[in-house]
Amino acid sequence: MPPFRGVDFLSVDSQFSEDELLVRQTARQFVDERVIPLMRDSFREGRFPSELIGEMARLGFLGANLEGYGCAGMSSVEYGLIMQELERGDSGIRSFVSVQGALVMYPILTFGSEEQKQRWLPSLQSGKAVGCFGLTEPGFGSNPAGMRTTAKPDGGGWILNGEKSWITNGTMADVAVVWARTPEGIQGFLVEKGTPGYTSSDIHGKWSMRASVTSSLAFADCRIPEASALPGAKGLRAALMCLTQARYGIGWGVLGAAMDCFETARQYSLVRKQFDDRPIASHQLVQEKLAWMITEISKGQLLALHVGRLKDRGRADHAHVSMLKRNNVAMALECARLSRDLLGANGITDEYPVMRHLCNLETVKTYEGTDHIHALVIGERVTGVAAYR
User: Tell me, which fold does domain 12-125 have in CATH?
Assistant: First the structure.
């Protein structure tokens, strides 16, 4: 396939600043030169290419939109463009960066003590340390308020008991942001790798997100000091604030997967010949599918850009992000399905990226809030009625 040149039917690029375009070009070149050459084998082997962590850190991708402690301090739009390009490479790469920045560095920066920030943020930004976010449990995904993991005060510290599941970066993590129920309510904690009573194990047999580490965390009378509690991370709202940051990145990221699928199908349709030695791009039904994809991608770009601009002005809230995540993931998944259809039997081989994106996007549609949960978030905003309670 020729090098990726971008998808810009509506001249959305004209709305980006020079700095934003430079950030995107840096991420695009990194994905072309370093990520894509690794992804077929990484997906086959079920292996996260950890050799990329240091390179992404040096480019400023880890905690890119955070301020201080070595972070790049990029705008929300610049951060979104990085997520777009990384997910064009693979959802697993974007997921690693999302978790590191939005679900680990963000809560430490927002809710942590100065000692915790100094201890962890520079190491996480430089890629010398890896983090994970422990909220989801085996029995509680869409209803995190039902969590059973507990933290009981014990002298000068806490004792954790419980289990977390479907945790990205779990077994890689040097520190876990863990949410547990205390006598005073839900609280966030930092649990370091190697703490007695804390164990992690990888989940195997995945057909999706194979180039991503997915784990379970277990806490059995795990004793942590008082200094491990995130002072400001009290209540479920704090955990949901972290998820809003990550969902925003997903809304941009899946655009990259959709673009890759569309461009693969477009180029394939121009060279694949059928019926009277004509390219299949000359057929009406093929053009209809391509027209649907480019239209929906363009709409998704405009939605992501507008929410990004709102976020940079402090005017985006969780319902806006829910609309972004819900719309763009569903759109990207349908683009992957239509592209697979246009490639025919070739679409199921890993010579092309389409089936890998399709499998990954099935997971992306579910995690960080399912399609249905985001519909109810939007529904609550427009009716004032919380239907999920």
Answer: Butyryl-Coa Dehydrogenase, subunit A; domain 1 (1.10.540)
